[in-house]
Amino acid sequence: MKVLSVNVGRPRPNPWKRLPATGIDKRPVTGPVAVSAPGPKGTGAVGLAGDRAYDVKHHGGDDQAVYAYAREDLDGWQRALGRDLANGAFGENLTTTGIDVNAALLGERWRIGSAVLEVSCPRIPCATFAGWLEQEGWLRTFTRAALPGPYLRVVEPGALAAGDPVTVLSRPSDHRVTVALSFRALTTEPELLPRLLEVAAFPDAERETIRRRVGRGPGAAHDGPGTP
Q: What sign for the dihedral angle of Cα 76, 79, 80, 84?
């Protein structure tokens, strides 16, 4: 289990969300890259030095500091779409191999290089992702596959590089909520949402919205999360 590439975004125009820029165009970089906790969402700060988010309402911040996607899943999409997908093509910071990132449990901790990262939540596809891939019906196709890849928060800052092993340091013993299951709960299977409320590692910012959706808070009949 290791990192094949560390990918940092190159700012480019974002006509798909009417924003001045997007950082989804991520390219592999050489050498160690510093990683640290970026702080609260809203500034565009992310975990990797030299990278940032431009849709500050929906991306960036501690719970979405680093995004990982498996090379094996990219290879599957290559075959399905009939096109080459380079490392970083899905906007991931870390392209991994040898680890099923979608089977990781929320709260699972990985050591990569000198940093420790924690699985926090799944990536939810957005209009920028659909526009970037230029694939008809992409949001529906990606959602149906339920291979979102995880966002990770930074528990211990450090540096990481291509070739670094991914070592699973710990896995929660009090739940079995995987990245894939949490994605299905947030997209196609809302009956699974109550399970997310039982997971300490799930982002606090999303809890109240989920409580309303499952009828555990005020406004349950009228509220629901938007998809960034």
A: positive
CA distance 97 to 107: 20
Q: Which residue has the tokens 């599957």?
A: 76
Q: Is pLDDT of 219 > 80? A: no
CATH of domain 2-174: 2.40.33.20
The ranges assigned to domains in the chain are 2-174
Q: Which of 34, 55, 71 is nearest to 149 (CA)?
A: 71
Longest dimension (CA), the chain: 51
Encoded amino acid at 163, one letter: G
Global model pTM greater than 0.85: yes
Cβ contact 61:204 at 8 Å: no
Place of tokens 């609260």: 40
Sign of the torsion angle spanned by Cα atoms 97, 183, 206, 88: positive
Return all residues near 130 (Cβ < 8 A) that are at least 6 apart: 16, 138, 139
Tell me the backbone φ, ψ of residue 84, rounded to 5 degrees.
-75, 140
Strand partners, 24: none
Sequence-distant (6+) residues with CB within 8 A of 32 are 113, 159, 160, 161
d(C-alpha 217, C-alpha 203), whole Å? 17
Contacts with 19 (C-beta within 8 Å, 6 or more apart), sequence order: 54, 55
pLDDT digits (tens, 9 = 90+) for 110-140: 999 999 999 999 999 999 999 999 998 999 9
